[in-house]
Amino acid sequence: MLLAVDVGNTNIMIGVFEQKEVKVCWRLATNWNSTEDELGIVVKNLLHHSGISPREISAVVISSVVPPLMYSIERMAEKYFSVKPLVVGPDLEIGLKILLDNPREIGADRVVNALAGYTLYGGPLIIVDFGTATTFCAISAEGEYLGGAIAPGIGISVEALFEKAAKLPRVELIRPPKTIGKNTISSLQSGIIYGFVGQVDGIVRRMAKEFPDPPLVVATGGFALLIARESEVIDRVNPLLTLEGLHIIYQKHQKKL
Predict the structure, then answer these.
(1) Which three-class secondary structure state does DSSP give residue 42?
(2) What domains are defined for the chain?
(3) SS3 category, 10
(4) 6 annotated active-site
(5) Is there a contact between 257 and 167 (Cβ–Cβ < 8 Å)?
(6) CA 217 to CA 24: how far, in whole Å?
(7) Which of the residues 91, 109, 201, 213 is marked catalytic?
């Protein structure tokens, strides 16, 4: 079995693949100070809870946008699963042409998403990832990574609002009954939800005008389903896109060996 680990600034996504299928997956809070032992014990307990023996894990693939955690994650793979992990980085050839001024500056998660999106859906394609930042990635019909846009994520934007406005309560992020709120809670929900829907739809429409043909729009990340329900431009939602991308990269790497 393959253990796929995507380390984000807010969450760590972990998935176990058996053949081509995701057998089980988990989302953990990212703690930049976690040691290899803390991570290893947590992952082993999750595996045990799902009826999977650590001995069944034969390979580990990792992508990360949190450099301070890379040592701990790699050591966890070696210490608790006795495998040297495959790490997605600028020097790993995955067959994706990146048309940026400096291809090495792109985040590993965006590369993984782009490859997964193009492999699963073809192109042209726009991928919207609702993570710590909301990222928009444009992929051509030929599978070229064209570039994109980065905006503050929903979670950190909402937290900033609550921290700076003492009288505003924290609210559950759900669709409000109406756009015109009749109280503080529904007004906040309306502004947050429909505000980000408007941001996504506006940016995607502008990006789509720069494609020769209409792109498919795929959403992923923690808030993808919430925003996609109200969006007029999102065509598909794939919460596991990044994990599936890691699986695809591992399979490509194995074929080259």
Answers:
(1) helix
(2) 2-87 (3.30.420.40), 97-245 (3.30.420.40)
(3) coil
(4) no
(5) no
(6) 26
(7) 109
